[in-house]
Write a structure and sequence with these properties.
The chain has 212 residues and is of the alpha/beta class. The chain has five helices and 14 strands. Helix 1 packs across helix 2. The protein is globular. Its cofactor is Zn(2+).
């Protein structure tokens, strides 16, 4: 199994693509550049099985319908943000990009209601609820590959912003400490923006996590 980080969309948000030996793939947070991204997936011979959204801010969802329509694959999103896909005010695209470029996406096919195991084909994830950056933020942990897709919860030497509607810094810090930092230190953190890191590196050197 292998994975790749592909920055997409207006904020170059990290989309992640993981694939198995059969070229089946899971897509995380396809943030934009939909036509080009679909072409890339086709050129790679990949067969997306699902789109997993860590949350529904505009920069993480811009290419969702391009991928879903091209490959007939379902979208997973937490219940606390299920209305954000269709609402450009809630997903913040109106605020950041203006009404002419506002992003609307069809509703999610599967709603995440709780922390649980999620099996899609040969891929087995643990879903962690990690709110704080947004109320429906989740992280997807692939234990077999020692990687967690954290969205905008935890970054290399930083944490997600909490000044947008529904954000809560105390809640985010609790999510990070109680869920993410409990993972093995060698676990790779596949962040929503910037470079990847590891749980151990953030435990040792992230200035936002000291003194919590």
């Amino acid at each position: 199994m292998k994975w790749r980080q592909i920055p997409l969309g207006p904020l170059q948000t990290n989309c992640y693509v993981i694939e198995n030996d059969e070229k089946e793939a899971i897509i995380f947070d396809p943030g934009g550049d939909g036509e080009a991204f679909v072409q890339w997936l086709n050129n790679q011979g990949l067969k997306p099985l699902a789109i997993l959204l860590t949350h529904a801010h505009f920069d993480h969802i811009g290419a969702v319908d391009h991928v879903r329509d091209a490959f007939s694959c379902p979208v997973y999103l937490h219940e606390n943000e299920q209305g954000w896909l269709m609402d450009p005010i809630k997903n913040r695209s109106t605020n950041f990009m203006g009404e002419e470029q506002a992003i609307t996406v069809k509703k999610a096919d599967h709603i995440i209601h709780e922390e649980r195991l999620l099996t899609i084909g040969s891929f087995i994830f643990t879903i962690f609820e990690t709110p704080g950056h947004s109320p429906g933020s989740v992280s997807f942990y692939l234990e077999k590959e020692a990687i967690v897709f954290s969205g905008d919860a935890l970054f290399a030497q930083s944490i997600g912003r909490t000044d947008l509607p529904g954000g809560n810094q105390q809640q985010l810090l609790e999510s990070i400490h109680e869920k993410l930092l409990e993972l093995p230190e060698e676990t790779v953190v596949a962040c929503g923006h910037g470079p990847t890191t590891t749980i151990g590196q953030e435990m040792d050197g992230n200035p936002f996590l000291s003194g919590f």
